[in-house]
Amino acid sequence: MKFNFKKWITVLSISCFLATGLFSQTLTQDDLIKTADELIEADLNGNGNEAYVNQIGIKNTVSIVQDQQGTSSENLVKVLQVGKRNLAAVKQSGMLNQTVVLQNGNRNEYTLNLEGSENTFVIKQEGRRNVINQNLTNTSNTYIELIQQGNDNEITHTQDGLTEQNIIVRQVGDNMSVQVIQSNN
After folding, report:
1. What range defines the domain where residue 103 resides?
2. Looking at residue 67, what DSSP letter applies?
């Protein structure tokens, strides 16, 4: 019996392609946070960017930068990280941005740098090393919800601008720490 190398490679390639299609996951709105009045609008009114990131596995890291071009732009970020070394860094500028980050477990860390107004952020970290660092400048009419369920928790939130700032912080257990600094510059 003669071994046909080309045929074997073709069969292997097709098998890998089918396995990738069967086991890959598509991020849907249902995979992300719901509750707190369904949190984030599903559709944007402007012509901004939308980023959906679904990371399940070992060494998760995501970095997203969204800058607006024009006054009718709205940006949307939805990140789901399940397991191990989560890290989500978001940088946005402009108005009417929406961000949802859900980190289920292990070494969670979330960072936001934002300049702009009328933005909505909902961040939920469920377990392990939890850290939230936010720095917002030139803000007004902002809604922020930060939730940490357990373990080493820490929230540092710095915000410039005091008009209609709504911030909800919920920490359930372990070594909690919250620092909220607001100024009107």
Report:
1. 31-183
2. -
